[in-house]
Amino acid sequence: MAAASTLAMYAFPRRLGAETAKLKVGVLLPRSGLQALIGQSCQRGADVAPELLRQRLGVDIELMNADTESNVDTARSRAERLIEQGAQVLVGAFDSGHTAAIAQVAEQRGVPHIVNIAAAPQITEQGYKFVFRNFPPAPEIGRNGLVLLGDIFREAKVAPKTAVFMHVNDTFGQAMAKGVAALLPKLSLPFKVVDTIPYDPAAKDLTVEVSRAKATNAELLLLVCRLNDAIVLRREMVKQRWSPMGVVSPGSPGLYEEQFSKGLGKYGDNCISNTVWFNPKNQITHDFAAAFKKRFPKDEFAFHGINASYTFDAVLIAADAFKRARSTDPKALAEAIRQTNIPATDRVSFGGPIKFNAKGQVDGNRSVVIQNLRGKPTVVLPAELAEGKLVFPMPKVS
Amino acid sequence: MPALPYVANAVISGTLTGIVYGLMALGLSAIFGVVRQVNFAHGELMTLAMYGAVGAFQGLALDPFLTMIAAAMVFGVFGYVLQRGFLNRFIHRPEHLRMLLMIALAIIIGNGLLLAFGPDARSVQTSYQLDSFELGPLLVDKVRVYAAIAAVVATALLAAFFRLTLTGKAIRACADNPIGARVAGLPVAHLYAVTFGLGAASVAVAGCAMVQLIDVTPGLGPGYTLLAFVIVIVGGLGSMVGALLGGLAIGVSEALAGLLITPSAKSMVSFGLLVVLLLVRPQGLMGPGRR
Q1: What are phi and psi of B176, to 5 degrees?
Q2: pTM of this prediction?
Q3: Does residue B162 form part of some domain?
């Protein structure tokens, strides 16, 4: 019955009545400051949403955009202000710290908060009733990323015996490092980690770090990075002519981003990220990509893959709940969000159906193997989503 | 312990980077030595020069090593005008006011760059940027070698100017005894401005060298201002040779600490070096008395 009603809803969109004409969605993102690039990338996903969702669901959405300025206190105060100004749902806010602050405000004020991207596990571990997240927590991302390593070796029919693990030493990097250290022994992967090298994500020079990694003679570089350090590190690998079998991130940003490929040219190719992504096979993804291209003709959709897709899906969840609730009352909306059941084929991001568990967390968001091929992040595994063929081991640097 | 070639590579890389650091700190040292002005906008001036080099590369396809000459001249004039037209007015004000003035200048430059260029990192990509010289088991980064050569040449030219020209000698007289210089009729305001111009020119050359080693972002300045201070204090405030030695000491010690202890220990070692030196030789390696 529920499935039938969901199907009917997507198949026959109709407009809501005048009494609930418009849903005001407050979008909180770091559009300036340290995380501005990623915040702006997320914002693109939100910007495309109202028109596309009007066509698909027949609902009207008004975005109320707020800049968190890459600052926790600003995130909190902007959330307060958006609610004062009439926002009925909050979406955001990429950074886990900012998101946690916004979640507190949302819970106190009784306004639903749909997290677009933020991986800190505790966000959905607080017993909040108004906080919902369609993004995997960090341990799940790490586990999915490591499991996919085995798929890479099976597909390539070759496996490294040793690896060196390099990671940024910020909160995210250290959480991932702990996760990797705990999970690796349980996954029966064929390699042994011979050295772990933490480094400063703000480092301008990684000569020594790369020298040390190269000195281990490891066959694989397992890398948890961010963007700028990833560029510096890869450049240094080329200068020091260090060519391991592969450079693989088990679930961090950096390697699949536009600046990485543009800044490094051919040296950015063949690096691998096992990460959450969009589902290139879904019709809604094609529609979203087309709308994205129309709105931002200078931007390559693939480079905004995660950020735009997960932000769009967060607005989609709000719109879907609004349609079913037929109300802008925050409590009714929160209840409708709790009952969400968006089929896997009707979401842009890759994963199973969007259903929230008792904690407000969507389970079953999946990762894919992304490899930079000819300057573009390309899905190479799993086979059913592959857009290109895996290159592993990566060619040696000449 | 890593094999010897890796240690040798780290020492060479640290030495070359240290020489460029030395040139960057040289401007700070010269300005302080003569004008007694602590330039808190030093890192921001270097960042500005780096953006200039990126602009020249993207707009005119000019190699940053060629841009150095034009950048040195532009920054020399800019520094002269800034000191002559603006900073000289504050020369007799209390030190904390002058300090705040330079911090304000740093914030204006940093935010101006953010407004003009946005937050994303920018870089130049020359054809030889990722090349290395292969000397047996050693791999020496080509760009670092060129940058170090440029830094040595710039330092030599600056030293020759201070030693061999009349203006240079007058500046040194000013540094040794400003009141005496006034009594002797030296144009102190002009000499201060020339010194600031030379300091700005040397930081512009350092910026053009650095832009091939690191990407530039608007927020780069404060970190490099702090680094320049550490180098200058280690080398001895006001000493040109000291700035180069300080740069070398920081560059090599950071490289070795990163390789032999842990990369996270790099900054800890350079600041540790600073603390030890302040305890045993507060005037720095080549501070007053040994210049």
Answers
A1: -70, -40
A2: 0.78
A3: yes
* Pair type for strands A192-199 and A162-168: parallel
Lowest pLDDT segment from A11-15, A71-75, A320-324, B162-166: A11-15
Residue A35 has pLDDT above 50, yes or no: yes
Residue with tokens 């592969």: A246
* B130 interface with A at CB cutoff 8 Å: yes
Q: A171-183 vs A138-156: helix axis angle to the nearest 10?
A: 60
Residue B168, in any domain of the structure: yes
Q: Which residues of B touch A197 (CB under 8 A)?
A: 262-263
Q: H or E stretch including A162?
A: strand A162-168
Inter-residue contact B257 to B216 (CB < 8 Å): no
The partner residue sitting opposite B139, judged by closest CB among A36, A204, A240, is: A240
- CA–CA separation, B70 and B57 (whole Å): 13
Q: Where in chain A are the domains?
A: 2-137+279-365, 139-278+368-385
Q: Do domains A2-137+279-365 and A139-278+368-385 have the same CATH topology?
A: yes
| ipTM of model | 0.77
- For residue A12, pLDDT over 70 is answered with no
| Interchain proximity A204–B213, CB inside 8 Å | yes
* Predicted local distance difference test score (pLDDT) of residue B1: 62
SS3 of residue A73 by DSSP:
helix
Residues 6+ apart with CB under 8 A from A159: A153, A190, A191
- Examine residue B108 and state whether it is found in any structural domain, yes or no: yes
Supply the pLDDT for residue A339: 97
Amino acid at A211: S
CATH assignment of A2-137+279-365?
3.40.50.2300
- Counting every residue written for chain B, the total comes to 291
Residue B254 included in any domain: no
What span, in angstroms and rounded, lies between the C-alpha atoms of A194 and A214?
Answer: 11
